[in-house]
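User: Predict the structure for this protein chain, please.
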Amino acid sequence: MRFEPTMKQAVVRRTVREFAASKLADAAVEMDRTARFPLGLAREMADLQYFGLEIPAEYGGAGLDAVSSTMVVEEISRANAAMGLCISVHNGVSAYPIYLFGTPEQHRRFLPLLASGEKIGTFCLTEPNAGSDIASLESTAIRRGNEYMLNGNKVFVTNGGISGINLILARVQGGETEGGLTVFIVESERKGLDKGPAEDLMGMRGNPVCPVSLNDCCVPRRNVLGREGEGMKVALSSLNGGRIGIGAQAVGIAQASMDASLTYAGQRYQFGKRLVELETIQKCLADMAIRIEGARLLIYRASHLKDRGLDYARESAMAKLYASEVAVEASRRGVQIHGGYGYTKAYPVERYYRDAKVCEIYEGTSEIQRMVIARSLLSEIPGSKGLRSEEGVPGRQITGRPSA
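Assistant: Here is the predicted structure, written as structure tokens:
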């Protein structure tokens, strides 16, 4: 079966590609050099509804399907990985979970702010002593009537330095579900929420990743996302969707590496020939092309399942795992094709190599993705019992769109 985008999807991809090439590619160099996030450029992207990709038009979003949303993230990341990361995280693990699990009142309060880009979103999960092992989170939420007092420390928060709305996972104390994990929607201006300095990153340097600390941060009960004690469910569903976004980002980086390598190999001469005429280089380029296309189709398949309201937990893990490893390999090959020049900042493949690596780490490391996939497979063995994913829940979850 051959995948063919619809006319609308093709238009979305072409429009984003043109914008990314004209506005985002040049900005990527300066963002990497200065480690500064371009707020003006973000406002332009907000006007194009890139901050509300899958949010319905009634809340100011673009109302795109998941496949189209994936294409947007891929094309932005192809030109500027740091901006692709911002868009992916904002949409995949902040705005969309509120749409999926939020109450009508939460929809009215938060979705227009997120879809318009007035408030940029985060998902605060990782802590100094917990990351892949969600069940070991130490942040607490003490229930006091209709309020919760949040305390804890989150680290490596993508978009943290510019965020206005943060989804924070904490363990409830004194509530109906003692010890249960719960997700809270916490506005950045709330007293008791503080942000540390931005991390000095290896790659994705234009994204303001920073720690977020909670010190007696008072949050009303109406800001609980989903139900109290259902934080694991909300988190896993969010991560499943977020992994598609990171996979799309990885495909964009891999494609950029391929583009740069083709251009360079067509211009550079060695042994009296252009590099592209050498069989060794041709084989290298062919391998890159095959793997990139395979990663792209895995991402589109996971997105398609999401659009149909079907379980895509395993497929998103497969797509994210393969695409991230393809991005690292494609950028590494790109540096090799460029030779000594690839090791300088004069050519973009050096940046692609640094940007690609983190795709194997965030939204679940490659090792965690393999655990998710394996345990999902094992859970289908007839008579199997108690096989669970790395976060303490079954390997396959139903994670479709909200019902009408």
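The two ends are 30 Å apart (CA to CA).
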